[in-house]
Design goal:
Length: 588
Amino acid sequence: PTNSYERVFNIVCLMVGLLFGSTLVSSLSATMVEVQVRNRDRHQKLTILRRYLNEHSVSRMLALKVQRQVAERLNQKTTLTGKDVPALEILSSALQSELRSEICRPYLMTHAMFRTWAHMDKHWFKKLGAAAADMVCGQVGDEIFTAGDEAEFTFHISLGKVQYSQESDSAPVDAPETTILEGAHWLCESALWCQWIHVGTVEVLKTCQIVTISVAKFWEQVGSHIVIGAIAREYSNAFHQRVTSAVPPQAQWPTDMQVANTDQGDLVYSMSPEAQRHIGLTALRVASSHHGVHALVGARQQANLAKLQEEVMQDKSVVVMNAKGRPERVVSLIILSISRSGGELLYQVGSQSEDGTRKAKTQLPGVKMTRDELTRGAMSRLAQTKLPGIAEIVSVRSVETLIEEKESKDLGVHTTYLRKVCHAILDDESQSHTIGVLCSVVGREDSTEAPQEAAHSTGATRASARSSLRGGSQVTLALASACSPPKRMLNKEVYFVPSKSEGSSIGAGDFYAWLSLEDAEALSSSAGEQGLLSLLQHFLQIPSNRDGMSLSASMGSAELQGTVSKGEGLQAAAAAAATAAAAAAAAA
């Protein structure tokens, strides 16, 4: 330095270099010491482990497996849990509970019923999370639970990957089965709602976060709340019913992963009206608070919510809260899909009301499920009211649950349709005519038809002489010659089944026919429905009393009429039909 400024600058640089150098050296020294301490701790743990294995004469193969897994886990970086943070021990018990509740809350809110309870009573839900829930870390190779053990916890896997396996000695499987689960999943939910023995084993394949819910502590907290406790008991009863009724072919055997027909909508649908009102009104209250933020959208939506709330109060609609916190209307249906050897299905093609009005609509026969009704009971009710005696000639092979979601036009709210389709086959083809009153549509195609008339047949049509009702009633039906049935209905057998639902008139009933999927799709169109309605309107007049069946249909200018009493045989019915036809021909 040649002057004072340079000397000052030199001194400053020397001081900065000294401080930086000493800091760097001390930092490197501290890091090296930390690494040495960690390695010494790791080495000490492995040394103690080897000593333990030697002192207890553990076999060489097992000792190597143990040492290898311990070494791998000591090198892994896992998610911290409350037990890994010593500083949390100095917190007060109240603050510890609040912290644990807030950490577990997002995972508990993924359960549909817990989400509803959280909006019913926020303070109580915090207590539930603090008392019953906890978070643990599952490392590779850990078994979360083992087949044959009694379940004491329900688990929510939030991260990582696990493998669920079943063996024939602990589960109704013919051969070992494995399922890989990755991402968020609930496991062993059945333990919350009924006494449960694990039927499979879960092993961690990739380090995961697990939220555990103690069954005993869960019910301690649930029992402390009057309303939520009552809802929980009903929910538990409904869940238990589905566990005990989950038997093939109606449903798959229950497992630790899932139980058939236990989604929120299905369970709430079978609960008492009072419980349904509490759940529905909670969902609507939450929705009202959300829509109130947006004035324009809120005004329109509030009117729909008010109308839906009125239906909930009158027990006309079942409403739950979906994963987005919005109200969702639930409708549960049971549908019967009967097939025969040719691949055709038995479709309902029309209906007749008590006043004789007929409507054409091609769909599989089905009814709306009632409260506290399981699949088997609903299927039995469907068979008795829609197709009496059908249960004796069909065999149920499986039950499939189809979920359809769409907006309700009347209420403007999201609606979920739970369609439980019972797939059955016709055991005896010769008994197909016993479904109901049989009316054969016979015709021949005319190759000279105009293009616009190609959808219908202009050929002759006639009535079948072999018609019967299950139970012995034999009838013959007539079809007007002026009727041109849809092309898809040529050579098809149409059955009429009088309704046996409570309070219905003997004149009410439904029309059925064996159709292929292509036929059903064509008849579902607007043009197909018009042709089908024209066909149905030319069939006989439905019987007006249970002792006899008055049949009539116009054939040209002549009127065909015949009456067949209950109990008459097929020959008598055929003779009556032949006599009536001959008289009509002579008159013509």
